[in-house]
């Protein structure tokens, strides 16, 4: 092999190396690709024997010591709270939230649930929703929403988009229109003015949460208020429909004000309770459900 051949080969290798370096430089100089946002799947359903480190409910009760209190319940509302009686179905909180919304609105839009009456007017003249008694009609809505929301299809739970699309698909399939409007304010609170306007219009909302608190009961005794409260880090969806405000006083001075949204838990038991604002929670979306 002669000297000219070696020179030609060396030049070829040098050019190849140069092209590799230029290519690497061009790649390094590119703007970094933006990572896609993580899609949340709401699946919080296992509450009994749940490990808190796995997101299950953790009991975290509170006692407020005071000598007086007031409860502003001008926006307290009556609403249904249905759960899930089918133990074979897991990760259903999006479905039960949708079911509660449909049962609530069936009072005003009777064909939302065919051949079903969600409640009745009692002797006082107020309206009362029937409790969850495993009605065939509401069970059918549950299973339809489960399919429409693509719950547990390929993943555990239901995405926020599939929840919204599935509920809209069901409502429109019954001959009505559905849209959403936001009443989000922050990660731990909602826009109360917008919520009040919705309540005045007979509407309900829904919270999509990646951590939350749930209040089972608020009990007022002579000098203390007991708050039966649990918290969870599992993504969860709940229908909200009204609210109360509690103010606590000592020696005539206000020292604490708390706002509680009324909520249908979405638990299998169908518990009805509250979500306390500016507490242990992380709101992803707060939506008013508009049906016409």
Give an overview in words:
The protein folds into 2 domains: 1-28; 46-291. 26% of the residues lie in helices and 34% in strands. It contains 5 helices and 16 strands. Strand 9 (184-186) and strand 10 form a beta hairpin. The longest helix has 26 residues, at 3-28. It is globular and about 60 Å long. Mean pLDDT is 87; it is low at 1-36 and 47-53.
Topology readout:
Blueprint: H1 3-28, E1 41-42, E2 58-59, E3 62-65, E4 68-72, H2 93-106, E5 119-121, E6 127-129, H3 136-148, E7 158-159, H4 160-173, E8 178-182, E9 184-186, E10 189-190, H5 192-200, E11 204-220, E12 224-232, E13 236-250, E14 253-264, E15 272-276, E16 282-291
The number of distinct structural domains comes to 2
Average pLDDT, rounded to a whole number, is 87
Report the order of strands and helices. Answer: HEEEEHEEHEHEEEHEEEEEE
User: What value does the Rg take, in angstroms?
Assistant: 27 Å
The proportion of residues in beta strands is 25-35%
Protein structure class = alpha+beta
Summed up, the helix count is 5
Globally, the shape reads globular
Question: How far from one another are the termini?
Answer: 88 Å
What's the total count of β strands?
Answer: 16
Largest sheet: 10 strands, antiparallel
Low-confidence segments, given as residue ranges, are 1-36, 47-53
Overall helicity = 25-40%
């Amino acid at each position: 092999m002669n000297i000219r051949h070696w020179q030609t080969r060396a030049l070829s290798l040098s050019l190849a190396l140069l092209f590799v370096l230029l290519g690497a430089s061009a790649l390094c100089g590119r703007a970094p690709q933006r990572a896609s946002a993580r899609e949340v799947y709401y699946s919080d359903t296992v509450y009994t024997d749940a490990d808190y480190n796995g997101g299950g409910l953790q009991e975290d009760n509170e006692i407020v010591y005071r000598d007086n209190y007031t409860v502003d319940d001008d926006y307290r509302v009556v609403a249904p709270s249905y759960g899930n009686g089918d133990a074979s179905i897991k990760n259903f909180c999006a479905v039960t939230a949708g079911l509660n919304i449909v049962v609530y609105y069936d009072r005003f839009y009777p064909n939302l649930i065919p051949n079903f009456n969600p409640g009745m007017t009692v002797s006082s003249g107020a309206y009362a929703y029937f409790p969850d008694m495993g009605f065939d009609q509401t069970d059918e809505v549950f299973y339809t929403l489960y399919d429409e929301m693509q719950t547990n299809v390929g993943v555990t739970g239901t995405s926020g988009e599939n929840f919204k699309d599935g509920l809209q698909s069901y409502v429109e399939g019954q001959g009505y229109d559905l849209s959403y409007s936001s009443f989000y304010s922050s990660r731990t609170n909602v826009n109360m003015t917008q919520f009040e306007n919705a309540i005045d219009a007979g509407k309900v909302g829904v919270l999509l949460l990646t951590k939350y608190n749930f209040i089972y009961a608020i009990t007022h005794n002579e000098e203390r208020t007991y708050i039966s409260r649990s918290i969870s880090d599992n993504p969860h969806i709940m229908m909200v429909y009204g609210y109360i405000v509690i103010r606590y006083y000592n020696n005539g001075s206000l020292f604490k004000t708390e706002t509680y949204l009324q909520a249908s838990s979405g638990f299998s038991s169908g518990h009805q309770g509250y979500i306390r604002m500016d507490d242990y929670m992380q709101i992803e979306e707060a939506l008013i459900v508009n049906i016409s």
